[in-house]
Amino acid sequence: MKTILYATDYSKNSAAALKLSYWLSKKLDAKLVILHVFDLNVALLTPLSLTYSKMEKETYSKHLEKLSVFCDSATGILPDGERMQIVIKENAIVYEGILETQKEMGADLVVMGMKGSSTLKELIIGSTTIAMIEKSPCPILAVPSSINEIALKTITYTTDFEESDLHAIAWLVKNFISKLNATLNIVHISTKNEYAGEDQMEWFKEMLQQKVSFDKLDFKICFSDDIFKELVLFLSKTKTDLVVMLEREKTSFIKSLAHRDLVKQMAFKGTLPLLCFNKEMLSP
């Protein structure tokens, strides 16, 4: 991993995400790009007018100073332009500004803060992060504001035994886990009526071993009629520090979570970082 892109709105949530981004950049020996996207929001002015140009320049300078202070307060480090670089971008649609910067910088990972709302995705992540998960060509790491101690010793990946899962885990081991010397739990949770779940896990193990050479892997299959409760229990028992999920079609695990009342009781809501892969980015 060469470049980590951290996007902020100066909120408390994003301050926690900055601390984790900075920690990861040191652990992974990666450059950290710190981004703020702003909307000039001047409906009566045209982009060609001198007033617009002046206002854009003044707003840019203001955000540049504000972002420098924000970085210093969160990490105690001022960006040097080399290992830590500040980028200010104007775009009315925040996620588009982030995607543009990700492409320009060739970022391998985008880090953002979590926000709260009503559905599963909106409970743990805000609308901009949702858009990034659906469109980003690289993984998205959503970080809760409540994270106190930075330690990614145990990582849990939830699998549905898809080929995309194999690619995601291979990326995870190569770029993340091996460098952090972490343990990876690979878990599949389904109802007791699922056919041949254990056979699928054995097949998945064999396929993964052809792609990944890593000793600190643990495989687990859990059967329960209450997937939420079983997942929460598993995360608690394994003392998971980071949850990893693949963004799938509507019928899959992460999408199905959005339609259950028990989502409001999930233990990792706002307490565990969530790393998400877009399935399309993993297509061969």
Task: Give a written overview of the molecule.
- With 284 residues, the protein is α/β, with parallel strands linked by helices.
- It folds into two domains: 3-143, Rossmann fold, CATH 3.40.50; 154-282, HUPs (Rossmann fold, 3-Layer(aba) Sandwich).
- 41% of the residues lie in helices and 21% in strands.
- The protein contains nine helices and ten strands.
- It has a ten-stranded mixed sheet with strand order 3-2-1-4-5-10-9-6-7-8, sandwiched between helices.
- Helix 3 packs across helix 5 (127-135) and helix 6 crosses helix 7 (197-211).
- Mean pLDDT is 80; it is low at 116-124 and 250-268.
Task: Please supply descriptive tags for the structure shown above.
single chain, 284 residues, alpha/beta, Rossmann fold, 2 domains, ten-stranded mixed β-sheet, 41% helix
Instruction: Give the radius of gyration.
Output: 20 Å
Strand coverage percent: 15-25%
At CATH level 2, the architecture of the largest domain is: 3-Layer(aba) Sandwich
Order of helices and strands: EHEHEHEHHEEHEHEHEHE
Adjacency order of strands in the biggest sheet: 3-2-1-4-5-10-9-6-7-8
Poorly predicted runs are 116-124, 250-268
What oligomeric arrangement do these chains adopt?
single chain
**Which range best describes the helical content: under 10%, 10-25%, 25-40%, 40-55%, 55-70% or over 70%?**
40-55%
**CATH topology description of the largest domain:** Rossmann fold
CATH homologous superfamily assignment of the largest domain: HUPs
* Distance N to C terminus: 20 Å
The chain-level structural class is alpha/beta
Number of helices: 9
User: Any idea of the CATH class of the largest domain?
Assistant: Alpha Beta
Mean model confidence by pLDDT? 80
Q: How many distinct folded domains? A: 2
Outline type: elongated
How many extended strands?
10
Largest β sheet strand count, sense and barrel closure: 10 strands, mixed
